[in-house]
Structure formats: structure tokens, C-alpha cells
Amino acid sequence: MASTLTKDHAPHLGNPTPPPGVVSMVENQGIEAFKDIAFGSVAGITGKIMEHPFDTVKVRLQSQPYPPIYSGPVDCFRQSLRSPEGALRSLYRGVSAPLFGAAIETSSLFFSYRIAQSALQTVMPTLPQQKGEPLPLRALVACGAISGAVTSLLLTPIELVKCKMQYPVSSSSSVTAPKQRDPISIIACVLRQHGLLGLWRGQLGTLIRETGGSAAWFGCYEGVLIALRRDSSTTAHAPTANTKAPSPSPLHHQLLAGASAGVAYNFAFFPADTIKARMQTEELASSSSTARSLTRKQQTTFWQTGMDIWKQQGLKGLYRGCGITVSRAAPSSAVIFALNAELRQWVG
């Protein structure tokens, strides 16, 4: 005898309802992603406003031709303050691109760092799986490297525009005229001369710096927090950079760990950043006629640029501007980590 199915007992074949646990997990991931982007952007922009004048001096020291036109950071500051365009405008020239870049960079780092942790726990069942339990430090260092590699792809075009805008104005070259130094004009010029891939000139330097630097950045931050937690009399659990914990570390611990991370990030792979900056401002350092005629084949490679700096100035040339970079990175990185953690704790 044929059986009939009532409407209530009919199988749902078209749009099966996902389990409540899956829906909750997707919603939580969406919320966490929004926090990464929003809080990371706020923290990154705040840190960039603090450090941009020092970053301008660093780029000018790194990209200056040989023989150098600045004797050191103090001399570069002095010449920038006496610039005909005004001290504030000279030191904050090109700040729009770095502010956008800082929001992209910091949010991408925190977002990809958290995703890398989740992925690592999924593919490696031997790692801690308990909710809220941090990964081993070696795993966190690996997650930091992954986040840096991902972020480098987003960061190279932004830094190319930033470096070209920060390069000192020269009256002898029409390429460096102020009217051609806004972001839109620079992007249009690069696209016209070198195509879309021209925006990623210096990508290898950014990749090396961000992969190694981010491993040092997150690894140092987590390592210092672990050390401080061990030495502290409190039993509060110190959170990782993207893990919400019931009892966060004290603010001064976060600031100290963040400052240490900033120093580690910038010092570890600084030569790669120097080479990248020289590559991205190569055309501006040339005469206007030479700059316009440079093709992709005529442009120096990452290794050629590095060897040129080494032959001209040695190790000192590769670390030119490192002192001022490390000194500004410590407070900036401390603010970024602390602000991100405090915003997460405040919002919940």
C-alpha cells in the first residue's frame, strides 16, 4: 500500500537548515572579523599620526643618492623644518597614503593573525584546542609570519605611493614637482609608464620585511607577555593579540610588550626596507629625462639595488635611518597593541 507524506513530514531537500552551532560560529567569525578591521584601523591610524614625521625622515635617509645629502637624522629634520613648503607640510607630506595604509596594514595583520591561529589549530590536532587556551609561542610566531606575507600584497602599492610623496622636492626635476606629487597623479604616472605590476615594485622587499618582521612583531609581543605573566604575582591570563580573555594583562604589560615588538619588527629586517625604499624612489632620484625613459628591464632588481648600496656605503647604508625608525616604532607599536586590546575589552 502506497504511503503518503504529510507537509509536516516531507523531507527538506531544497534549502536544508544548517545546524544552530554552524550559524553561531559563522556569526561569531563575522563579528570577530569586524572587530579586527575596525579596531585595527583605529589603532593603526593613531600610531601612524604619531610616527609619520619620523617615517618621513627615515625614507629620505634611505632613498638619498650617494654621496648623501643628509649627514644624519638631525640634519634631515633640520632641513625639513627649513623647507620652503613649511615645516609641518614637509614632515607630514604624503600622510594621506600612510593613514590609509596603516588602517589596511594593521587591520590585515590582526585579522590574518587570528585566522592563521584558527587554521593552525584545525590542521594540527596536537596543538591546544581548549577554548581560550593560547597556542605555543613557536606556533604564534608562524602565524605572525603568515599574516605578514598576506599583508605585504596589500601594502606594497600603498608604500610605493608614500615613498614617492615623501621624497624631497627637487627643483631640477619635473617628476618631483609638487603638482605631480599627489597620490592620484603618482598612481596614474606609474600605470602609464609601467602598467599595473608597476604598483608592486619592491614587493620582494616588502614580503621579506613583513613576513620576518611580523613574525618578530607578534612573537615578541606574545613572548614578553608570557614572561611578564610568569614574573607577575597575579594569576590573570594574558591574552594573545587577537584572543579575548576574561582577565586581560595590565595596561603597562601591554605597553611594554608592544614597545618591544615594535623594536624587534623594525630592526630585524631593516635592510630589506632600505632596499625597497631605494627601488621605489629610483626614478625620482634620476633626472627628469632619465626617469621618463626607464623601462622595466632598465630598473634595478632587489638584489642589484642591495649590492649597489653595499658597495657604496656598506652595512651602514643598509641600516641608514634605523635608529630613528626604532625609536619611533617603540611608542607607536605600544599604542597599537594596547589600543587594540583595550577596544576589544571595552566592546566585549
Feature tags:
single chain; 348 residues; mainly alpha; globular
Derived structural class: mainly alpha
Tally of DSSP β-strands: 0
**Helix and strand succession?**
HHHHHHHHHHHHH
Inertia-based shape: globular
The proportion of residues in beta strands is: under 5%
User: Please, what is the average pLDDT?
Assistant: 80
Give the N-terminus to C-terminus distance in angstroms: 60 Å
* Rg value: 24 Å
Which runs of at least 5 residues are low in confidence (pLDDT < 50)?
Answer: 1-15, 171-179, 234-238, 287-293
- Helix fraction bin: 55-70%
Oligomer: single chain
Tally of contiguous helical segments: 13
Largest sheet: none
Structure write-up:
By secondary structure, the chain is an all-alpha fold. It is built from 13 helices and no strands. The protein has helices spanning 20-63, 73-81, 87-91, 96-123, 137-166, 183-194, 203-231, 251-268, 270-280, 282-285, 288-293, 302-318, 322-347. The radius of gyration is 24 Å and the shape is globular. 44% of the residues are buried. Mean pLDDT is 80; it is low at 1-15, 171-179, 234-238 and 287-293.
